[in-house]
Amino acid sequence: MNPSLINWPAVVVAAISGFAVGGIWYAPAVFGKAWMADSNLTAGKVQKGNKAKIFGFTFFFSLIMAANLAAFLADDKTDVSWGATAGFLAGIWAFCAIAIAALFEIKSWRYIFINGGYSIVSLTIMGAILGAWR
């Protein structure tokens, strides 16, 4: 790893991409209704959430994820293909962590695949952005 090869604007864009993916992934027409049902949430409960806290911390954690992935990809040989592959592999780790916690929380497999799938897709896209924007 060569920290001087980290492209910080790419890290920010990669972090923001998680919002775009999440907006689509958790939309009611995609997985939103199933996710809410399996999370025991209602639209009213979601609306009562502190949006500044939710979106603020979401961006903060997405930024940490993107920076961490960028550190692993900080190599002259990194390209879009390797970036996407590394992101996918990081997504598999995240999927497994989500699955382990969800199994102990007695969550459904559907819940696991919705949240774990989001991690895989989101991190793959983050990795592709970081690999492409060298």
From TrEMBL:
Top-level taxon of the source organism: Bacteria
Name under which the protein is recorded: DUF1761 domain-containing protein
Keyword Transmembrane helix part of the UniProt annotation: yes
Species whose genome carries this gene: Mucilaginibacter lutimaris
Record key words, sorted: Membrane, Transmembrane, Transmembrane helix
InterPro entries: DUF1761
A Pfam short name: DUF1761
Residue intervals passing through the bilayer: 6-27, 54-74, 80-104, 111-133
